[in-house]
Design brief:
Layout: E1 8-16, H1 19-24, H2 28-39, E2 43-52, H3 61-73, E3 76-79, H4 89-98, E4 102-104, H5 112-142, H6 155-171, H7 173-187, H8 192-201, H9 214-223
Parallel strand pairs: 1-2, 1-3, 3-4
Helix pairs in contact: 4-5, 7-8, 8-9
């Protein structure tokens, strides 16, 4: 066990990319597990902050609150995953200039220089991908394609896209739990609309973050038949 004088206070910072993930808890559970494993015998979490937004954006109000609390309490900012930080160069330098001590649970040896280099590479990669995509679309337009029209998709492409969406839906942990719950209710003779209401009461949501309707209950159960 570590010397008691090394016991620290931590402020945990989490980030998820969409409102749906924020509502369902998807992504947060893995981050919390990583944080809990890191602080074992090292200290305690005095507060948690979660931003729900795109990694490309630099407007993270909850992060700014977390940094302010760290400076007030003399705590360490603890981030579960390094890639939650390295999407934006400006953000890295904001963190550096704040003067707050920070650590990443999945890469404790990382420092401001390390993540600064990673952020620069990540931003460069995004720019390269964006430029490549724009050039590819321009070539298609020159070749006579009318972009954005469903008739440009072949039957095979449409079927492949549907198969991918169905696979993603089946692998979604929230969908699996909701379907199992719905199946047990349906087996007890509960109506589709009543099942939807029960799922909503237990804070289950569709993959788009919406409340369940009877038709969505039928669809989600059909995925697992």
């Amino acid at each position: 066990m570590e010397h008691p004088f090394s016991y620290k206070k931590y402020v945990a910072y989490f980030r998820v990319s969409t409102q749906r993930q924020g509502a369902s808890g998807l992504g947060l559970s893995a981050q919390r597990t990583s944080v809990s494993a890191y602080i074992h015998n090292k200290g305690e979490i005095v507060a948690e902050f979660t931003d729900i937004e795109s990694g490309k954006k630099n407007n993270r109000p909850e992060l700014l609150k977390a940094i302010a609390l760290c400076k007030e309490k003399g705590a360490v900012l603890l981030i579960a995953k390094l890639d939650r930080l390295t999407r934006n160069v400006a953000f890295i330098f904001t963190l550096r200039d704040s003067g707050a001590e920070f650590v990443c649970a999945d890469m404790p040896q990382a420092n401001t220089l390390t993540i600064g280099v990673m952020a620069t590479m990540a931003q460069h990669e995004r720019e390269v991908i964006g430029d490549r995509t724009r050039k590819a679309l321009a070539e298609k337009k020159r070749a006579g394609y009318v972009l954005g029209k469903p008739e440009n998709l072949t039957v095979q492409a449409v079927q492949k896209g549907l198969a991918v969406r169905q696979l993603n839906a089946r692998e979604d942990e929230n969908n699996r739990r909701a379907a199992a719950f719905a199946r047990s209710l349906r087996g007890a003779g509960v109506s589709w609309s009543s099942i939807a209401a029960t799922l909503n009461e237990h804070v289950f949501r569709t993959r788009r973050g919406k409340q369940f309707q009877a038709v969505q209950v039928q669809r989600i159960m059909a995925l697992f038949n």
